[in-house]
Design a protein that fits this description.
Blueprint lengths: L2 H8 L7 E2 L4 E2 L8 H19 L4 E3 H7 L9 E5 L5 H10 L3 E3 L6 E6 L2 E6 L1 E2 L2 E2 L2 H5 L2 E5 L2 E5 L2 H10 L8 H11 L5 H7 L4 H12 L7 H8 L1
Parallel strand pairs: 4-7
Antiparallel strand pairs: 1-2, 3-4, 5-6, 6-7, 8-9, 10-11
Helix pairs in contact: 6-7
Length: 224
């Protein structure tokens, strides 16, 4: 059998379609690395915000990754910005060719970079992003690019405040709380979430799992 016939006989099998007529096989492209794509989008937008002098802090699952939590990214990257900076941030991104749109929700704007969604958020779980919150941010490397990242306490506070009867995914927050437990002001979180059923239930779960120490002061108050 001639080599050309051998190549033709292979057809579009495991190696992919034949091209060139001499047994040259085109391999299928590898699927895109979604984690790396999200990191590239994060670095791109953070670089633009830094260059423009706009105060911000990385939030959400990519912020958890920056603090040392194993990568488990959601569908986008979150940045915390102040509401009063939204127009200036929009101009900065659009000037760099980044698509920006205003969704029906009035607490964020959305952008798109490297094919990934970017949320620029003015409110974290109905709490406004403040200058004080951004000042507490820590500058950390994110895939070799340094940028402000929400402090561990502010990060977990935003996740706890998002719990409700309609959204209560303890499983996604538990690894973050477990990894960052020594860096978090748990007394502050207990105080801020006192009387909120879902956050209090999560904090109680952390106690039962020995992730954090029991709130002995609160137990003594209930006993009296």
């Amino acid at each position: 059998m001639r080599s050309a016939d051998f190549g033709a006989a292979e057809g579009p099998g495991v190696g992919g379609p034949v091209a060139g007529g001499l047994g040259h096989v085109e391999r299928p492209a590898h699927p895109p690395d979604r984690t790396q794509a999200i990191l590239e989008a994060t670095k791109h937008v953070a670089g633009l915000l830094k260059a423009g002098g706009h105060p911000f802090a990385l939030a959400g699952s990519v912020a958890a990754y920056a603090h040392g939590v194993p990568a488990s990214f959601q569908h986008d990257t979150d940045f915390a910005i102040r509401r009063e900076d939204a127009e200036a941030v929009t101009r900065e991104l659009e000037k760099a060719g980044v698509q920006v749109r205003v969704p029906p929700e009035d607490w964020l704007i959305k952008a798109r970079s490297h094919g990934e969604e970017i949320d620029l958020i003015f409110e974290l779980a109905r709490q406004p992003v403040t200058a004080e919150m951004l000042e507490r941010a820590q500058v950390l490397p994110v895939d070799s690019v340094r940028m402000p990242v929400l402090s561990p306490t502010d990060l977990v506070a935003s996740l706890l405040a998002a719990f409700s009867e309609h959204h209560c995914d303890f499983g996604s927050v538990l690894p973050i709380a477990r990894t960052l437990r020594e860096k978090i002001d748990w007394d502050r979180l207990r105080t801020e979430n006192e009387g909120a059923p879902m956050p209090e239930a999560f904090l109680f779960l952390l106690e039962r799992l020995n992730v954090i120490d029991p709130d002995e002061d609160h137990r003594e108050e209930e006993a009296t």
